[in-house]
Amino acid sequence: MSRNVDYLINQVAGGATQRALLALWNQLHADAAANKSTFDAHTHRANVPGSGLTECLSTVGLAIDANPEDVQFDRYCDFKIAGVGYHKAITAAIDISTLAFTPSTLATLTSRAYLFTLNASGTVDVVEGADLTGSDEALAVVPATPAGECAVAVVLVGNKGVDTYKLGSDDLGSPTDYNVTYVNLLRNEPVQVSKPQSDSETVSQGTAVTFEQNLET
Length: 217
Prior knowledge:
By secondary structure, the chain is α+β, with helices and mostly antiparallel strands. The protein has 2 domains: 1-44; 55-202, no CATH class. Helix content is 18%, strand content 30%. It is built from 1 helix and 13 strands, in the order αβββββββββββββ. The chain has one helix at residues 2-41, and strands spanning 55-56, 62-64, 71-73, 77-81, 84-88, 91-94, 110-118, 124-128, 132-133, 150-159, 178-186, 189-194, 201-202. Strand 12 (189-194) and strand 13 (201-202) form a beta hairpin. The longest helix has 40 residues, at 2-41.
């Protein structure tokens, strides 16, 4: 009889313990769900540098090509699109006339920015900026970067008024006819500014250069 009573007491105690543990577990689960809701409502995010960004991680070394109407990438380039990393090899010559981009004519005494981009396949594209009256290429406005592409460099052209200009057809190395500046981008900021037949000037990231641009990515 004593054994049966002890067994019954243990069963009752065990059931009570299980119920207590279950209640505690349910409460912890409810608290965690409430905390998650609060966390999500405040849109907290882990601070992972560069997470999900579209940016150029190393400069492409944009320069005038042996064919002076074209350009080249003197350096390999690592870049990200929406946080996914890609690599672009050194490109000895970029024939602008073969790109999907169709250039328009730049009138005399007018300036324009040409934004060079890469997509996930490493394909080069160009986006024209709006025309600006005057031959000071440093004032030209850089256009927005298309979705799914990464901005890597800019060519700024100021037409001095001798003749019209078309990218991919006319000589970029003609200082008599055009003011031309090459700008290499790093993390969407200008870090190297150079002109054809002149030494390049490298500046630290964030340092002001001769122009100010806002690149949208």
